[in-house]
Amino acid sequence: MKTYFTEQTGFFGKSKPSRLLREFGSPLYLYNEAILRERCREMAGLISCSRFKPNYSTKANSSPELLKIIREEGFDADAMSPGEIHILLASGFKPEEILFVANNISTGEMEYALNKGVLISCDSISQLCRYGRLNPGGAAVVRFNTGIGAGHHEKVITGGENTKFGVNIELSGEVRAVLKEYRLRLVGINQHIGSLFMEAAPYVASVKSLLSVAEKFEELEFIDMGGGIGIPYHKQDGQKRMDLEDLGGRLSELLMNWAAVRHKDTKVKMEPGRYITAECGVLLGTVHAVKQNSSRTYIGTDIGFNVLIRPAMYDSYHDIEIYENDEIIKSDQKNVVTVTGNICETGDILAKDRELPPVMEGNIIAIMDAGAYGYSMSSNYNCRLRPAEVLIGMDGTPRLIRRRETMEDLMM
Ligand SMILES: Cc1ncc(COP(=O)(O)O)c(C=O)c1O
Could you tell me which of 251, 305, 322, 381 has the fewest CB atoms within 10 Å of its CB? Predict the structure, then answer.
């Protein structure tokens, strides 16, 4: 028996899918505040250590209203660009609560962060030198690559040999030399091994390795272990959640032992993105065509890869629900269909050869777990408009938090 996430969680609160689409347009990003807060609390309680405070990785979803809630839940934040720094500051984060995890940035971008009072993590010796020239005597952060990577697709594995990210830990002697040359104080080190893993082992191994780097730098104020904690995208088929108790327990033990030996009050950080926002987001759309081409049945929707690119970019899987008159279609009859968007590209596919109940024109389609790397990776490709974003509050009432784009926006 399949389980249906929106039904289990009462996702739509006081509203119905059809009413939401009528009011805010189709497609539509919907977020549920109760689920967002629950995920924040699970992550904030992951490690039993008073010096633990997670950073939310803004790249997963940078919607200002969600950022405000995440901050309220006690998170600091990571930014990947001056734009994300700007949005974080405007959403209430203080400069000292933000870490700019920078990759191949210009001098101007470094100056932007420095002028705002935001710490910059340098991910190459070359960038650390540039930073030293710009801010001699200042506080520095370095992103290390411990040689361990993990993730759901080769494109999102960010540790190990085949990635542009981080300074190899073997180069810590050179890091030390650059620090000395520019009188920099290394106040933090961070890493990120990749995105969406469901097992604790690679993460714990990489943290061990990062701690061995930390030993070499006396002035460290924080260690940031990175993000990547996975969520179950196959909930309809009963996929289990990642065992956070196991992960948290192993990390707590590791960090406690390390602190006991070091006698240091080093702060501990993480950079989760997906875990915080993926499951609080559902993407609603409309079926506009059902057609047969050769042996395939295509379900044509208004959810193109400009709206949700994960399936086209990483072959990602998302559970799908179909509604008729606001009821989930749960028919025993199943057809194998390919669900597509409205973009002029053959690769504009949401789900290939998926078993779904009979789908008809006019049905509403809902894509689960769309709150991370959904809107934040959307575009105007084909001059399509980005959808609105709506937050279903704690009392179940929907509230517009970002308006749908207009044709005029395409000219800006
Ligand atoms: C440096 C860095 N930190 C944190 C994250 C967040 O990862 P996730 O959303 O998988 O937790 C990413 C995403 O890839 C990243 O590149």
Answer: 381
Q: What is the mean pLDDT of residues 382-393?
A: 98
**The CATH number of domain 45-276 is 1.20.1070.10:** no
Does ligand 1 lie within 6 Å of residue 152's CB atom? no
Look up the CATH architecture of domain 5-30+280-411.
Beta Barrel (2.40)
To test the pocket of ligand 1, the residue of 152, 271, 276, 314 to mutate (highest count of ligand atoms within 8 Å of its CB) is 271
Q: What is the distance, to the nearest Å, from the Cα of residue 137 to the centroid of all Cα atoms in its chain? A: 34
Which residues fall within 8 angstroms of residue 270, CB to CB, at 6 or more apart?
43, 46, 52, 54, 55, 224, 225, 226, 227, 229
Whether 158 lines ligand 1, by a CB cut-off of 6 Å, is yes
Supply the mean pLDDT for the chain: 95
Token look-up 């040689």 returns: 147
CA 171 – CA 144 distance, rounded (Å):
9
Closest-CA residue, ligand 1 atom 5, reads 227
Q: What is the pLDDT of residue 263?
A: 65
| Residue 40 annotated to the active site | no
Count CB-CB contacts under 10 A for residue 274: 26
Q: Which of 39, 11, 2, 10 is nearest to 238 (CA)?
A: 2
Task: Report the largest interatomic distance among the alpha carbons of the chain, rounded to a whole angstrom.
Answer: 70
Number of Cβ within a 10 Å radius of residue 363? 21
Atom of ligand 1 nearest to the CA of 230: 10
Instruction: For residue 332, name the pLDDT band (cuts at 50, 70, 90).
Output: confident
Boundaries of every domain in the chain? 5-30+280-411, 45-276
